[in-house]
Amino acid sequence: MAASSRKPVLKTLKACKCFERVSPVLLEKRAAVASPVELQEDGVLFEDGQVADAAYVVCSGWLMIETIDGEGRAALLDLAAPGALLSFVAAIADQPHAATVRAATPVAPSRPPAQNPTRAYRSDPPFTGAPPHAAHPR
Prior knowledge:
This protein is 27% helix and 22% strand.
């Protein structure tokens, strides 16, 4: 990724609370290999049941996290704003997505490189610990 297009991704990664303990050098490396994904309004990032192949950081726009209710209608679960980290746990666990994510506005999320996208998260020490909101025993 060119340095100029990497800047917004790096800025977003630095602003994410879940990356606050990750070294600036590692964040720069992640931003350098991120693959930008752009969605128009109502475009689908991933669908419920689809196997997760990447984690996503929302760089701009808003995403709707939806499921299908008992009557077959879409039900809004949450909104993801710039800085949100999506699909991280599903990606490192090779699990399917538990919801559909679609753009509420034009969006520019970024994702890790396509070749074995979860390997980097499994092998880098800052990404192999407990999830950001997990309790840490002392």
